[in-house]
């Protein structure tokens, strides 16, 4: 189980390139990736996105990449057309000013566009250096998510244990529930019929009430959901949505138990189960 919250940082490169990479994520219902990188590396953004999409199920993921070139591969060329244009313009200017002066190289070097500087770097060279660092940083990032996920799992299992304990309490109260309805029906009949209580009719009435207010089915389903919850916690990959669905189902069963209940002890158990379940749902929001 992994948390949606994680962080990783790494630096590395080659003799001519140095990268720093920061990777962090927060909770989000869906996968949302933000990539910030230098303009030179823009063609690599789809590859970075694809790398992360293949490894992360959901969450708001932010990637920050910085680059420093320690050895630039440059070529410098002279734009002959621009030089000729400047020379012609300078000679014309000198003639208009009637101040003939020898045109020197230093004059031309001050002018823009004469020297054309071009960088030569294949985008594949950048990726060849960046990819290993991306893998390494992601490993650190993913390890932090696993570590936090383990802490979440421990906390959730403790809360599941609390719900299971309250289920046992309620199961232990089922005989008392039967006695409650039996005594209630008997008292009503005695009030109406004095001492002429029809035992068969009374038992029939009790049976009807027990069918109507029995929580056996709800307890069976609730225990099945708890067992399924434990199994899903051990699965690989994104499990947050599955767990959230099970929480909805468990909440439905707990609410039904509460609505059928007539015993104060069961009411306390229902309240405790709802409290534990709400805490579980809070924790699930952090799970991938």
Q: Could you explain how this protein is built, in words?
A:
This protein is of the alpha+beta class and 288 residues long. It has 3 domains: 6-71 and 123-144; 74-119, no CATH class; 149-284, Four Helix Bundle (Hemerythrin (Met), subunit A), CATH 1.20.120. The chain contains 9 helices and 6 strands. The chain has a 4-stranded mixed beta sheet with strand order 1-2-4-3, covered by helices on one side. A hairpin with a 3-residue loop joins strand 1 and strand 2. Helix 4 (123-172) runs antiparallel to helix 7. The longest helix is centred in the middle third of the chain and has 50 residues, at 123-172. It is rod-shaped and about 140 Å long. The model has no long low-confidence stretch (mean pLDDT 86).
Please supply descriptive tags for the structure shown above.
single chain; 288 residues; alpha+beta; Four Helix Bundle (Hemerythrin (Met), subunit A); 3 domains; two-stranded antiparallel ribbon
Short structural summary:
The chain has 288 residues and is an alpha+beta fold. It has helices at 45-53, 80-97, 105-109, 123-172, 174-193, 199-213, 216-233, 240-260, 264-284, and strands at 6-13, 17-26, 31-36, 59-69, 74-78, 115-119.
């Amino acid at each position: 189980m992994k948390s949606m919250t994680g962080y990783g940082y790494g630096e590395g490169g080659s003799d001519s390139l140095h990268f720093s990479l920061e990777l962090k994520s927060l909770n989000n219902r869906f996968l949302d990736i933000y990539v910030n990188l230098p303009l030179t590396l823009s063609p690599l953004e789809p590859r970075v996105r694809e790398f992360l999409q293949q490894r992360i199920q959901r969450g708001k993921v932010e990637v920050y990449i910085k680059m420093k070139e320690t050895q630039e591969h440059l070529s410098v060329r002279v734009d002959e057309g621009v030089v000729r244009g400047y020379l012609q313009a300078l000679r014309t200017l000198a003639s208009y000013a009637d101040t003939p002066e020898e045109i020197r190289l230093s004059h031309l070097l001050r002018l823009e566009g004469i020297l054309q500087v071009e960088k030569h770097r294949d985008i594949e060279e950048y990726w060849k250096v960046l990819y290993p660092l991306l893998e390494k940083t992601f490993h650190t990032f993913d390890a932090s998510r696993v570590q936090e996920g383990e802490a979440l799992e421990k906390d959730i299992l403790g809360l599941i244990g609390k719900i299971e304990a309250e289920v046992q309490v309620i199961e232990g109260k089922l005989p008392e529930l039967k006695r409650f309805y039996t005594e209630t029906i008997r008292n009503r009949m005695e009030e109406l019929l004095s001492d002429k209580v029809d035992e068969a009719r009374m038992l029939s009435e009790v049976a009807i009430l027990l069918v109507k207010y029995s929580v056996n089915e709800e307890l069976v389903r609730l225990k099945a959901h708890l067992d399924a919850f434990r199994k899903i916690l051990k699965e690989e990959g994104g499990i947050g949505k599955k767990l959230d669905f099970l929480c909805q189902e468990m909440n439905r069963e707990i609410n039904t138990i509460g609505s059928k209940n007539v015993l104060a002890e069961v009411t306390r158990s229902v309240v405790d189960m709802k409290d534990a379940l709400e805490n579980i749902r809070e924790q699930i929001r952090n799970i991938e």
